[in-house]
Amino acid sequence: MRMGPFKLVVHFDGHATNEDITFWVLFIFCLLALLASSFYFWVYPRLCPPAPPPGVPDTVRERIVSFMFETSATLRHHEDQCAICLDEFVEGTSLLSLPPCGHTFHSDCIGEYMSGATICPKCRENIT
Ligand SMILES: [Zn+2]
Ligand SMILES: [Zn+2]
User: Fold this and answer.
1) All domains of the chain, ordered by start, with CATH?
2) Dist CA 88 CA 99 (whole Å)
3) Which ligand is nearest to the CA of 82?
4) Residue 96 has pLDDT above 90, yes or no
5) Which of 8, 35, 66, 97 has the lowest tally of Cβ within 10 angstroms?
6) Residues 88, 105 contacting (CB under 8 angstroms)
């Protein structure tokens, strides 16, 4: 027993009426239109997902808390300069340590950097 558009073949041997043919032509046309649109709206966006915005998301940035520089001995990697602007850390300067690797930079320098990149500028560890 055959269902759907295959019935068209059966009808064609002599006694298919115009209404039958119009119906099946419309049916197949609608089916193709449905397939095409579902491909375009459902499959296509999944094959080519929209590019994520560059930079570290705000939700991650909010979790990175700034602190004041005292001595390089208190830092995990004992840095005494910012790898972005290459200025030496001065006591009382606002710094940020990245959570995965602990590398420390000026708050302003790394803040600006994270608007366009998601990896640590020193060790390339993913910040997000
Ligand atoms: Zn800096
Ligand atoms: Zn790092």
Assistant:
1) 4-47 (no CATH), 58-113 (3.30.40.10)
2) 21
3) 1
4) yes
5) 35
6) no
For residue 70, how far is the Cα from the chain centroid? 38
Residue 125 amino acid letter: E
As a residue count, the chain comes to: 128
Q: Residue 45 Cα, ligand 1 centroid: separation in angstroms?
A: 40
Rounded Cα distance between 48 and 46, Å, is 5
Cα–ligand 1 centroid distance for 51 (angstroms):
29
Residue spans of beta strands (DSSP E) within the chain: 66-68, 94-97, 104-106
8-51 pLDDT per residue, tens: 555 555 666 777 878 888 888 878 888 788 778 887 777 776 77
Which residues sit with Cβ closer than 5 angstroms to ligand 1, an ion?
82, 84-85, 106, 109
Q: How many Å lie between the centroid of ligand 2 and the Cα of residue 92?
A: 22
Band (pLDDT 50/70/90 cuts) for residue 118 is: very high
Confirm if 102 and 74 have CB atoms less than 8 A apart.
no
Which residues fall inside 5 Å of ion ligand 2, going by CB? Answer: 101, 103, 120, 122-123, 125
